[in-house]
Design a protein that fits this description.
250 residues, alpha/beta, 5-stranded mixed β-sheet, 5 strands, 9% strand
């Protein structure tokens, strides 16, 4: 994946500074480095220079959406540039706040220069912009996963399927086309059931879906590699698009 916005590895846990670097990198891809720098300067100006509290708080509060990708990336969630879209508004607002602190004669030229740099660095109608590229990167994999989907459509007996919501939430939605619902999956949101299935999958589920390709594999792929008996009692029955389907042997 080109463009600098795809991270090939997915450690189980990332340092907060590494996660912050990913946010900044993604934001630069979406808004351009000039706007990001101007926004950072504007944020510092809001904090350091005196002024009405409301004028300071409004642009700064727009930065709060950064908490979502920061916590997600720190926890090892795969990089997704769409999480930084709300922050584009934040850096532009902060850049505007910074320009507003300039002498009047410099405000309009400064805004014009920033707008031109933003348009040059991130052309609005560029066909290979990061959001468009990320939105389309699943298409080939989706077609390849049809092998797994067809097998499930023909053989699934209604019993639970172990799968990571963090890596295969999108595929869980795809399987709605063959009549599967979210309640048929055991995932991170199931708490103790998820924890138990990770320890002894054969005692809790009849099927396992593993993302083996994206960013080094998901949490189940890592478990299967580190614990040789994790897939004991299961047979690999279908694969495609980086997803492998295992069925409990009879």
């Amino acid at each position: 994946m080109s463009g600098g916005f795809f991270v090939p590895e997915n450690p189980a846990l990332r340092e907060p500074l590494t996660a912050l670097d990913q946010i900044v990198t993604g934001l630069q891809e979406l808004a351009g480095s000039a706007v990001v720098i101007a926004g950072a300067i504007g944020g510092l100006a809001c904090l350091a220079l005196p002024g009405p509290r409301a004028a300071i708080a409004v642009p700064l509060v727009l930065v709060l959406p950064a908490l979502l990708p920061l916590s997600a990336f720190t926890a090892g969630h795969p990089f997704r540039i769409r999480y930084m879209v709300p922050l584009v508004a934040a850096v532009w607002a902060l850049a505007g706040a910074g320009l507003g602190r300039l002498p009047n004669r410099w405000q309009l030229p400064g805004a014009a220069i920033l707008l031109i740099l933003g348009l040059i660095q991130t052309p609005p109608f560029e066909s290979r912009n990061p959001m468009a590229t990320e939105a389309q990167r699943e298409r080939p994999l989706q077609r390849a996963r049809e092998t797994v989907t067809r097998y499930l459509a023909a053989e699934h007996d209604g019993s639970p399927i172990l799968a990571s919501m963090g890596s295969l939430g999108h595929y869980m939605q795809e399987t709605a086309s063959i009549g599967l619902s979210l309640r048929q999956f055991v995932h991170e949101g199931n708490g103790d059931l998820w924890a138990g299935a990770l320890e002894q999958p054969r005692s809790h589920v009849s099927w396992i879906l593993i993302e083996e390709m994206a960013e080094g594999g998901d949490v189940l792929a890592v478990r299967a590699k580190s614990e040789k008996n994790f897939l004991d009692g299961f047979v690999r029955v279908a694969e495609g698009g980086g997803v492998a389907l295992y069925r409990r042997s009879r």
